[in-house]
Automatic annotation (TrEMBL), chain A:
It is found in: Membrane. It is a multi-pass membrane protein. GO terms for cellular component: endoplasmic reticulum membrane. This is Phosphatidate cytidylyltransferase. GO terms for biological process: CDP-diacylglycerol biosynthetic process. The keyword Oxidoreductase does not apply. Keywords: Lipid biosynthesis, Lipid metabolism, Membrane, Nucleotidyltransferase, Phospholipid biosynthesis, Phospholipid metabolism, Transferase, Transmembrane, Transmembrane helix. It catalyses: 1,2-di-(9Z,12Z-octadecadienoyl)-sn-glycero-3-phosphate + CTP + H(+) = 1,2-di-(9Z,12Z-octadecadienoyl)-sn-glycero-3-cytidine-5'-diphosphate + diphosphate; 1,2-di-(5Z,8Z,11Z,14Z)-eicosatetraenoyl-sn-glycero-3-phosphate + CTP + H(+) = 1,2-di-(5Z,8Z,11Z,14Z-eicosatetraenoyl)-sn-glycero-3-cytidine-5'-diphosphate + diphosphate; 1-octadecanoyl-2-(9Z-octadecenoyl)-sn-glycero-3-phosphate + CTP + H(+) = 1-octadecanoyl-2-(9Z-octadecenoyl)-sn-glycero-3-cytidine-5'-diphosphate + diphosphate; a 1,2-diacyl-sn-glycero-3-phosphate + CTP + H(+) = a CDP-1,2-diacyl-sn-glycerol + diphosphate. It comes from Dromaius novaehollandiae (Emu). Pathway: Phospholipid metabolism; CDP-diacylglycerol biosynthesis; CDP-diacylglycerol from sn-glycerol 3-phosphate: step 3/3; Lipid metabolism.
From TrEMBL, chain B:
It is an enzyme of class 2 (transferase). InterPro entries: PC_trans, PC_Trfase_euk. It comes from the Eukaryota. Keywords: Lipid biosynthesis, Lipid metabolism, Membrane, Nucleotidyltransferase, Phospholipid biosynthesis, Phospholipid metabolism, Transferase, Transmembrane, Transmembrane helix. The chain crosses the membrane at residues 63-95, 116-135, 162-180, 187-209, 215-241, 253-275, 329-351. Signal peptide: none annotated. Catalyzes the conversion of phosphatidic acid (PA) to CDP-diacylglycerol (CDP-DAG), an essential intermediate in the synthesis of phosphatidylglycerol, cardiolipin and phosphatidylinositol. It comes from Dromaius novaehollandiae. PANTHER family: PHOSPHATIDATE CYTIDYLYLTRANSFERASE, PHOSPHATIDATE CYTIDYLYLTRANSFERASE 2. Its EC number is 2.7.7.41. It catalyses: a 1,2-diacyl-sn-glycero-3-phosphate + CTP + H(+) = a CDP-1,2-diacyl-sn-glycerol + diphosphate; 1,2-di-(5Z,8Z,11Z,14Z)-eicosatetraenoyl-sn-glycero-3-phosphate + CTP + H(+) = 1,2-di-(5Z,8Z,11Z,14Z-eicosatetraenoyl)-sn-glycero-3-cytidine-5'-diphosphate + diphosphate; 1-octadecanoyl-2-(5Z,8Z,11Z,14Z-eicosatetraenoyl)-sn-glycero-3-phosphate + CTP + H(+) = 1-octadecanoyl-2-(5Z,8Z,11Z,14Z-eicosatetraenoyl)-sn-glycero-3-cytidine-5'-diphosphate + diphosphate; 1-hexadecanoyl-2-(5Z,8Z,11Z,14Z-eicosatetraenoyl)-sn-glycero-3-phosphate + CTP + H(+) = 1-hexadecanoyl-2-(5Z,8Z,11Z,14Z-eicosatetraenoyl)-sn-glycero-3-cytidine-5'-diphosphate + diphosphate. GO terms for biological process: CDP-diacylglycerol biosynthetic process. The gene is CDS2. This is Phosphatidate cytidylyltransferase.
Amino acid sequence: FLSQEVDLDERFGELDLRNDSDIPDVPPSTDSTPEILKRALSGLSARWKNWWIRGILTLAMISMFFLIIYLGSFMLMLLVLSIQVKCFHEIITIGYRVYHSYDLPWFRSLSWYFLLCVNYFFYGETVADYFATFVQRREQLQFLIRYHRFISFALYLAGFCMFVLSLVKKHYRLQFYMFAWTHVTLLITVTQSHLVIQNLFEGMIWFLVPISSVICNDITAYIFGFFFGRTPLIKLSPKKTWEGFIGGFFSTVVFGFIFSYFLAQHQYFVCPVEYNSETNRFVTECEPSELFRMKKYSVPPLLQAVLGWESVNMYPFQMHSIALATFASLIGPFGGFFASGFKRAFKIKDFADTIPGHGGIMDRFDCQYLMATFVHVYITSFIRGPNPSKLLKQLLILQPDQQLDVYKTLKSHLVEKGILQPSLRG
Amino acid sequence: MLSALTLQMLQPGLGQRLELSLRCRGDTCLDGVQRREQSCCPASFVSTLSNLFPSLWPRWKNWWVRGILTLAMITFFFIIIYLGPMVLMMIVMCVQIKCFHEIITIGYNVYHSYDLPWFRTLSWYFLLCVNYFFYGETVTDYFFTLVQREEPLRILSKYHRFISFALYLTGFCMFVLSLVKKHYRLQFYMFGWTHVTLLIVVTQSHLIIHNLFEGMIWFIVPISCVICNDIMAYMFGFFFGRTPLIKLSPKKTWEGFIGGFFATVLFGLLLSYVMSGYRCFTCPVEFNNDTNSFTVDCEPSELFQLQEYNIPVVLQSVVGWKTVRMYPFQIHSIALSTFASLIGPFGGFFASGFKRAFKIKDFANTIPGHGGIMDRFDCQYLMATFVNVYIASFIRGPNPSKLIQQFLTLRPDQQLHIFNTLKAHLVDKGMLASLEDA
């Protein structure tokens, strides 16, 4: 097929990139609504029909979400992984369509290969930490862990060299564009899905509350906009309104507050996920940390008059949930605007047609990405320190004389703090 | 066009070809032939040289220009090494900024996006954010005690990730707010272009600095191997080159490639032998709190102590020795030179492909005869990452002081747990007597 000497680079070079008029038109997305729904809603007007389809699908997605939560952390991890793969696939497909690069078969393999490499690298780094005891027992895995970075780098390099060797005359520019497109997509989807998984391992509540806040913000902003919307918010998304934005903000904060109150009571959500090597399963059982123990807070005088209480029993986590909900409502939408701008830039209505009435998976998850990174940075900055088991692993790799030095430093520190009694033996 | 006339007068027969070579317009030169001598040198420099060496001029002109500039750059390199790690760090940073600037300028030219003034600001802002993030992490690790002393620095380092993320987010939101109707695609392209450039240029310049702090030898040997491979492959190709290597770079030949490989391995062995004898090269760079300066003073590690190796039987007959005294580091240098010769060129091919894709001759015109800074450093980037991964995997473990830092932030019960596990481990290994010792 490449023998058809259409110099794609030449044609591409002629495209007037100064405005967007040259983008090929994407065929209108097919209506993937199931027949049942169509018949049931045949009597309603177009406005309410859309509402109903979206509403039903929303409920379906939320139920599936609850089901997965019930099934546990491992299933959640698999779910996150499949979503990541699907998002990657959607964005790469858009790239193919924009650049007409279906004629470069190498490129599909290379993109998937890079996805595999980067996933291998990240999973090796994070998952190996959590499964330390599982890994210690198996010899082959030990080798993979010890030289993990080197192996990942070698795999990536192999892909890089394949790319260089696959450069074909007259298609250079296209190939470089697809290379860059793949890397930016990897940067966005893969790194952030791993941050989501790390948040998950910190405790399911750190996974559930941010995601629900974003979903709640989406829904309540839509509802407030639907009923009260007057002033447009931003030219990028003409359907968003200031009323929806502000109403969504306040409802999300309240929702986050109440939702975390309920979740904080159950150990299942609050405890870090750990892998029990004896039973070979994930356990979430622990002594709840300080964040999840009721404390008495004095209500500021301003609110005292309104609420009539002088003090209130809250979980400290609920204060954090206010921060999370605020971010979800104020900055999260920027992720949505970014995706809207992207869709307009490439003249597509939705990322894909996977979910009827909602578009592709990427459409649902565009606001989540910024949120995942924020939660991760928030946790590492304000909540917890480094991971103790990872620290221990690194300590054990040191040279023996270094270990002895560290031991002495730690001992003097602990004695100083009174945590260790000098006379204590073993 | 004055220079073209000068040359035409000197060498009437070749004036035609040379005149063609200097027809440059702006950043790009029109050429139908992929000959390096047609780069846009500053006309005055070339004409000065042509006046000095009229008889040698025709074939060797390009050789001389490149040769002189190469010597100039190498001398500059030695001076910088002499000046110490701090200056080296500055140089790396300047090179990084210049490379970033070169690549972004190419992007502007490709997309005609000079009409979007926001974009230049945003690109530089992102560069600043990412640099702030990386330098903050590095500085926190290596200057730990200095940072702890100063109160504002301590807060900045404690919440470093959060602050960097907030800065980045601001840039992201500014980008979203700056999206203009009819220019969406351009803006997204520039956004993507900026991020890929940052990924390539900034992350790897920081890996170079990490390697540098490990010991100057880890910085000098890889870079010299890449430079040596460049030069040797060029020379072998010049004298013996017959079989083309890859369509992307028609001037590269298999003879140059293989000759360069062996020459580089040999060069690496010799250079590391010479350097391993000096402490200023082999010791990790440390910051001395009392004198407030960098020191490179330490007990040389095992890698840099001469050891006796048995020569494999095969080589014994050739070389005539039974054993040889070498530094273990020299074995590692073989690995480094091998990578520099075999995989390093792929970085060069990538850059060649990039230049062809966007129809540019060189990244820029900063260095006469050589092109831009990026042209010189294209092979170095893969090398820097490789050395960093190599060190992390095979040479050293984690940084003990960093581990202690992290330990101090844990909760008391976690600290106790780790302490007891470490103690049990040390007792197991027999490093610690089972009774308490000081």
